Amino acid sequence: MAVLTAAALGVVGFLGYQAAATAPDHPTQARPGSHSAESKKKDKGDAGAKKKSTALPARSGTGVRVVYALGEKRVWLVGADGKAGRTFEVGPSPASPAPGTYSVTSRNKGGVGSDGVQVEHVVVFHSEGGVVFGFSAAVDGSMPDPNARKRTGAVRESRADGTAMWEFAQLDTKVVVVP
């Protein structure tokens, strides 16, 4: 009887862990690569789910550049041929830069972000009103809380995307922010 009780508790614990990790009301706690029911609908192309476009936005500049679309929460790394070599979703913080053209002003291999999280591959492109805007990857894989009270300008990427940004966006690389 004790063996059956232990087995039942193990199954219940495992199912509880799975439910907590993918609960839609805890998006910041979801593990990288885990999918909520809503994102699975989008992946399958359900009629009710709107699929995000990965096409480079119109009027996003020319030449080598990073394009950051605020509304789409997406970045494109655009080469000299005008084509995006890579695009990926990002997690913005509560503050966003105004649409416009900026350039990479500094880079830092690692440190602590303005939200207190250990980050790597920091690429800064703008500063305004005490808020520093830049791309980075959290070492623990977390994304910033868009509803946080502290105004930070972190634009978080996955670690793989952060590495790609680090390799692409050198000092003075153009960064175009679109709505």
From TrEMBL:
Residues 23-57 are annotated as: Disordered. Residues 1-19 form the signal peptide. Keywords: Signal. Residues 37-49 have a biased composition (Basic and acidic residues). It comes from the Bacteria. This is Secreted protein. The lineage of its organism: Bacteria, Bacillati, Actinomycetota, Actinomycetes, Kitasatosporales.
